[in-house]
Amino acid sequence: MDFVYGQDSLEDRYDQVLVRYGEIGLKGKNRHVFEQQLVRNIEKALAGLSPRKIQRTYGRMFVPLAGDAREVLPRLGRVFGIVSLSPVVTVGRDLEEIKEWALQMAHGHKGSFRVDVRRSDKSFPMNSMEMNRLLGGHLLRANPDLHVDLEQPELTISVELRSEGTYIYSRTWPGPGGLPLGSSGRGILLLSGGIDSPVAGWLMMKRGLELLPLHFHSPPFTSDRSKEKVIDLCRILASYAGPISLHLCHFTEVQKAIYRDCPPDLGVILMRRMMMRIAAGLARERKAAAIVTGESLGQVASQTIESISVINAASPLPILRPLIGMDKEKIVELARTIGTYETSILPYDDCCTLFVPKHPEIRPRPSRVEEAEEALAIPELVQEALAKIEVIEVDG
Ligand code: ATP
Ligand code: MG
Q1: Which of 231, 279, 294, 314 could form a disulfide with 273 if both were Cys (CB 3.0 to 4.6 A apart)?
Q2: CB-proximal residues (5 Å) to ion ligand 2
Q3: pTM of the full predicted structure?
Q4: In the sheet where 244-250 sits, what is the strand order?
Q5: Region 127-149: what's the mean pLDDT?
């Protein structure tokens, strides 16, 4: 979601941002709740700037500007639920003023354009067709570098005539879309330092799920640098979500026990099952209702359908795997778009790569897994790991 903004001579003149949101509109009776959540999230995203009152009208929102479009727009461009946004100039019904601003919007532009007038204020003396023609003609006369193209114009100047004011704009940027963060409850994100899990977390946040990331590390086998890397990934997620509480779980004892007492080919599966139990324990403490992972079907031995099913059996909570049907290239592409890729590919030592067996079981039988776990003091290991969780507050 790279938000390239600038080179706009009107930057300081825009007085509000028109915010469009999509699916919330479909939510029937809950719509109000969703809209309120979006307003809160926008306010949170703008924290630290001068305070402002967000207005809701007809399924859209207006965020006032105070000459600070450059700060406000990139922040809004990362708020989940926002489909697109346009900085606007708001004027009254004075035709000369509307013509002047439409001209300003095309200032310096060479090439094709069109005017797109919408009139919801039917008391306005001209209809939208007449206004299109009037403004188009005015622009053509005043700026000889312009020509009209109604099909694929390089520049569209939009004019919305409403009873509360006339909005004029020519630029629209995409937001991330989806639902407002927090509108789908809370989940625990199993966050490794790899490419996949940050993308999985981002996708679930985009569906409104607030996340508590949980990272397992195994000091002294894993380094502080790996921990820093996960903090950096959380910082990127926080640039969309606002401050995030990263939970660090000391996993060394669990891994040692598995390595010492269980068959090596089941190592990774048993580790994953322990991760799920600890995640479920944390979910209980923090009132989360789901676990999120970056697993994708068939990607590695622990992600075959048999492995996934054995892993699921250890979790009392639903495990959400938004990447399950995605190819690696697609995941990488998304990681680049959201900005986690460059951090994810930095070298790190993951606790899971420490005791990786040469020949991992790819079709684990549930009975064999359960039998292997008899050698482990599961409740004690889980309790110990939960008690040692460290929380780091990470801001964007
Ligand atoms: P990723 O790129 O997210 O590490 P991966 O393709 O490397 O995923 P695995 O290493 O098998 O796959 O891990 C599968 C999933 O298990 C990860 O996506 C993540 O959700 C979780 N996971 C793995 N290692 C850790 C860890 N150290 N801490 C927390 N979660 C982990
Ligand atoms: Mg990994």
Answers
A1: 314
A2: 192, 194
A3: 0.93
A4: 319-320, 290-292, 186-190, 210-217, 244-250, 390-394
A5: 95
Contacts of range 256-259, beta carbons closer than 8 Å, 24 or more positions apart: 257/376, 257/377, 257/381, 258/355, 258/376, 259/355
Are 264 and 328 members of one domain? yes
163 C-alpha to ligand 1 centroid (Å)? 54
351 lines ligand 1 (CB under 6 A): yes
Kindly give, in sequence order, each residue whose CB lies less than 8 Å from that of residue 172, ignoring residues fewer than 6 positions away: 84, 85, 86
Is residue 89 domain-shared with residue 215, that is, in the same domain?
no
- Rounded Cα distance between 289 and 274, Å, is 18
Span from the CA of 256 to the centroid of ligand 1 (angstroms) = 19
Residue of 188, 195, 196 to mutate, ligand 1, most atoms within 8 A of C-beta:
196
Domain count, the chain: 2
Last residue of a domain, one of 152, 174, 196: 174
Residues 230 and 372 in one domain: yes
Q: Whose CA is nearest to atom 14 of ligand 1?
A: 295
Going by C-alpha positions, the residue among 266, 353, 246, 335 that lies closest to residue 296 is 335
> pLDDT tens digits, residue range 62-86?
999 999 999 999 999 999 999 999 9
Write the pLDDT tens digit of every residue in 186-234: 999 999 999 999 999 999 999 999 999 999 999 998 888 899 999 999 9
Pocket test for ligand 1, best of 189, 190, 192, 348 (most atoms within 8 A of CB): 192
